[in-house]
UniProtKB/TrEMBL annotation:
Its EC number is 1.-.-.-. SUPFAM superfamilies: FAD/NAD(P)-binding domain. This is NAD(P)/FAD-dependent oxidoreductase. Residues 30-382 form the FAD dependent oxidoreductase domain. InterPro entries: FAD-dep_OxRdtase (IPR006076), FAD/NAD-bd_sf (IPR036188). GO terms for molecular function: oxidoreductase activity.
Length: 404
């Protein structure tokens, strides 16, 4: 399936990481990671850094799947507000989910500091504004629960919001703990680093079509009939992980994004803040290091790639109008636009861990709007599992979390 259409900005912005290495013989490894996007890259980094022998296999080239279509906002805020999440799962677990995402942003920053590479990681504030009267009530309720649990948050009334950020809404929540990144640059460099530093094997253009559980581990079979034997299989294939799951756990959604031509620095709002709203589906806005403006949103239930792609022109027009309503003084002209497919869950949380009864196939499924921060958490949880270290976050993000 085509994961995206149009021209994702990150592919145009960065040199294509040209790596062609299909599997041409049977292969044995302790841990095989299926998926060479940002999730697979972070998992490989954590395992290689811990001395665990692993390899990556992907049916495409490195990081040419869903990661290229990501707008790559890094927030501790989850698609499901905390005040709503506590009605879905245990309150302590919901709070731990938010705290984990907060820590994850720093952990991502430290990964790249540790290898001496900057994938355009930038700390920026985040502004979550009320779209309407219903949104005002949500903002007020969300503010109270975040304050109660000492999560970083500031309440902005209409005047404070307009004075500081230059657009109008009844109120908003602000924090200074968010960030943004170039996901393609991050993933390709991280994988390249471990290919050369750790001897990481990466097999591209190699599709896994079958798998069977053995007494210890798994045997995978590729489309060309080659076999991969491993003690553990890590599924980091995004929504394409469906064929490895006993049953569906996610909902597929089409999303749309565009990037502007560069604008004059004078038009960029306070500290290049991430901006998003309470309305569903919401619009979200960020900038890059060249003063381009990136807008995403207008999500729809996914039906098929043809239907998704046919809506691109219409959705771009809607996103442009929404931005112009917020910032009418900014001369905005779309340079590139794209659409993609991602997965979401009933509570906004990812699925990380093993399916009950299958302890050697581990899922790193960063479903939801916080995919990259979820991926960092997944990488750490998987490393801890393989090292026999108990991690309380497994109760939050695992398949066994209980609904209320």
């Amino acid at each position: 399936m085509d994961l995206y259409s149009g021209l994702p900005y990150w592919i145009a912005k960065n040199p294509l990481y040209n790596y062609f290495n299909p599997l041409v013989s049977d292969f044995n490894i302790d841990v095989i990671i299926i998926g060479a996007g940002i999730t697979g890259a972070l998992v490989a980094h954590e395992l290689c850094s811990a001395g665990i022998k692993c390899a990556i296999v992907d049916k495409r080239s490195i990081t040419t799947g869903s990661s290229t279509a990501s707008t790559a906002l890094l927030q501790y805020e989850i698609d499901t507000p905390l005040c709503d999440m506590v009605e879905m799962i245990d309150e302590d677990l919901a709070v731990l989910a938010y705290q984990s995402c907060l820590q994850s942003i720093t952990d991502i920053e430290n990964v790249f500091k540790g290898i001496g590479f900057d994938p355009d990681f930038e700390r920026v504030p985040s502004v979550f504004f009320a779209s309407d009267k219903k949104g005002v009530k949500l903002i007020e309720k969300e503010y109270e629960i975040r304050k109660r649990y000492k999560l970083p948050v500031t309440f902005l009334n209409k005047k404070a919001l307009t004075d500081k950020y230059g657009f109008q809404a009844s109120c908003a929540l602000e924090n200074n703990e968010s960030a943004q990144i170039d996901a393609y640059k991050a993933a390709t460099h991280l994988i390249d680093f471990h290919i050369h530093r750790s001897g990481l094997k990466v097999f591209t253009n190699t599709e896994v079509t079958k798998f069977r559980e053995k007494s210890v581990g798994y045997e995978l079979q590729t489309i060309n009939g080659y076999k991969i034997n491993s003690m553990y299989v890590i599924i980091a294939a995004g929504f394409e992980a469906g064929k490895f799951l006993p049953k569906p756990v996610m909902k597929l959604t089409s999303t749309y994004a565009l990037v502007s031509e560069p604008v004059d620095e004078k038009y960029i709002w306070h500290k290049k803040s991430l901006i998003w709203e309470t309305r569903e589906p919401y619009i979200y806005i960020r900038t890059d290091n060249k003063n381009r403006i990136i807008i995403g949103g207008e999500d729809e239930d996914f039906k098929d790639p043809v239907k998704r792609d046919s809506l691109l022109r219409k959705k771009v027009s809607i996103l442009e109008k929404k931005f112009n309503k917020l910032f009418p003084e900014i001369p905005f002209k779309t340079d590139m636009a794209w659409c993609g497919t991602f997965s979401s869950t009933y509570d906004g949380l990812p699925y990380i861990g093993t399916w009950p009864g299958a302890d050697r196939m581990v899922y790193a499924l960063g479903y939801g709007g916080n995919g990259i921060t979820f991926s960092m958490i997944a990488a750490q949880l998987i490393k801890n599992k393989l090292n026999g270290i108990k991690d309380e976050r497994a109760d939050v993000f695992g398949f066994g979390r209980k609904r209320k």
